[in-house]
Each structure stands twice: as structure tokens, then as C-alpha cells.
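Let's study a protein:

___
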Amino acid sequence: MRSVDLKKMRRISIIWGIIMFLLIAGVTILGIVYKEESKKYKEYETKLVEKSEDYMRINNLSKITIEELKEQNLIEQTSVAEKECTGYVLKAEEKYQAYVKCGNYKTKGYAE
């Protein structure tokens, strides 16, 4: 009787081990995918800041939208990963920060 219980316990332990491994692997993969996706948006934010700094300084602006950047031919694209973006660049205390919303992605602090 005891050997049957031990075999059962061993099988249950193996099954739970496999389940835990799959859960950890799944969460890790999701984290990597999210990080790669976020990287594209961060690069776009950096590009917006680079393209807008001189223009904002020359024109004494504290805010410029993605649409205005496009109208001024400072940027070509208004989308990332085939998701249309809205947003703006703000200047505060000589620091520039881009805020974008593209599909489900939104920069922390983005105000509509």
C-alpha cells in the first residue's frame, strides 16, 4: 500500500513540476516580448525629441504635437509597428520629453 502512495506522490510531484516550469517559461516569454515591443516605442519617443528640440527652441515652443511635427516635415511616420500614434513633446526646464499613445501602448504621464 505504501509503495502505491509513493508512486502516486511521485507522479503528482512530476506533474506539478512540469506545470510550474511551463508557467515560469510562459511568463518569461511574455516579459521578453513586452520588453521588445516597448523598445520600439521608446525609440520612437527618442526620435520625436531629437527631431523637435531645435524647432521648439528656435520657435520658443513648450509643446509640439506629432501632427505638427509631420506638418513641418520634421518626421515622416506617425505610426509604430503599424499602430497609428498620437502624442506630443513637452519642454520643461530645458528638458524635452515625448509622450505617445500607439494602440495599447501609452507613455507614463501621457495626458489626452
